[in-house]
């Protein structure tokens, strides 16, 4: 069978940044700037609170509305109140949608697309390899996929080297015997990093016994194989080999029905908070330098 890396969780930061499309983010920035300019312009020349008479104070108050916190003062002028109210409704609608997806993606950001076909392996540009003797399965094929496999594949000798490369890099594919992969994953106590591609490119290996004509062992071997197959002994041995390590969960339990909410789920929120504090610190230092250099002049 072909084996590829199992799907991995998406980056929470990447998932959150894709909640809205680029056009929606751009529209929000444009609306924010337009409302800021409009608020500043409407507050000029009238008896309005100081919180809206300068561009910086208007920008500050509208940013507070956008992030969902209280403003310093409410506007007094009727037209400014209508503008302010409309912007509050707009921000409430957008923040409600954002917070819903934000919480969902913090808990479960989703998973990358799982490779399922040979075409996807070839189109992804992922490196792959297998033993030289496996070329016999593709030498006589006229399929373009098989020809491309023969021209790009790497040599895997021993096979464990390629399986281990999937575990270390998460960006490799290999053709190997299923029993070898199962034994390896049981040995390292980890089934989560490697998954079978599909059943389209599965090759069955037929094993034959050769006996001299009239050999007395022929009937005994035939009877033993038939008895083992009919009794289910072979199936049981295969099942015991697959799951002989009881500490490893079965593949069907990869996506559990519950999860443990830890501090790691909130890492994105702390990164954003750290970015905000860093930006504030830089602006504060810039204001001090500006005051020190230009005010004295």
From TrEMBL:
Keywords: Cell membrane, Glycoprotein, Membrane, Receptor, Transmembrane, Transmembrane helix. It is a multi-pass membrane protein. GO terms for cellular component: plasma membrane. Gene3D superfamilies: 1.10.287.70. InterPro entries: Insect_Ionotropic_Sensory_Rcpt. It comes from the Eukaryota. The chain crosses the membrane at residues 19-43, 84-107, 268-290. Its main location: membrane. It is found in: Cell membrane. This is Ionotropic glutamate receptor C-terminal domain-containing protein. It comes from Zootermopsis nevadensis.
């Amino acid at each position: 069978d072909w084996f590829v890396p199992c799907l991995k969780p998406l980056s929470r930061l990447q998932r959150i940044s894709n909640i809205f499309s680029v056009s929606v983010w751009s529209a929000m920035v444009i609306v924010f700037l337009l409302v800021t300019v409009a608020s500043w312009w409407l507050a000029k020349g009238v008896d309005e609170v100081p919180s809206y008479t300068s561009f910086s104070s208007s920008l500050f108050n509208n940013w507070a509305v956008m992030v969902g916190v209280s403003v310093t003062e409410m506007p007094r002028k009727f037209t400014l109140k209508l503008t302010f109210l409309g912007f509050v409704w707009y921000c409430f609608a957008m923040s409600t949608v954002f917070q819903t997806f934000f919480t969902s993606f913090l808990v479960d950001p989703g998973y990358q697309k799982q490779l399922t076909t040979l075409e996807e392996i070839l189109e992804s540009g992922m490196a792959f390899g297998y033993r030289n003797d496996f070329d016999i399965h593709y030498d006589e094929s006229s399929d373009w996929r098989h020809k491309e496999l023969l021209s790009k594949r790497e040599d895997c000798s021993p096979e464990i080297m390629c399986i281990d490369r999937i575990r270390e890099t998460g960006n490799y594919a290999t053709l190997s015997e299923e029993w070898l992969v199962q034994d390896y994953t049981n040995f390292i106590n980890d089934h989560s990093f490697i998954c079978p591609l599909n059943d389209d490119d599965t090759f069955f290996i037929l094993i034959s016994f050769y006996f001299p004509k009239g050999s007395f062992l022929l009937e005994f071997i035939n009877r033993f194989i038939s008895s083992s197959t009919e009794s289910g002994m072979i199936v049981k041995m295969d099942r015991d080999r697959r799951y002989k390590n009881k500490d490893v969960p079965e593949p069907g339990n990869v996506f559990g029905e519950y999860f443990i909410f830890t501090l790691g789920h909130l890492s994105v929120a702390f990164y954003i908070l750290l970015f905000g504090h860093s930006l504030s610190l830089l602006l504060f230092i810039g204001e001090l330098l500006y005051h020190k250099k230009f005010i004295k002049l």
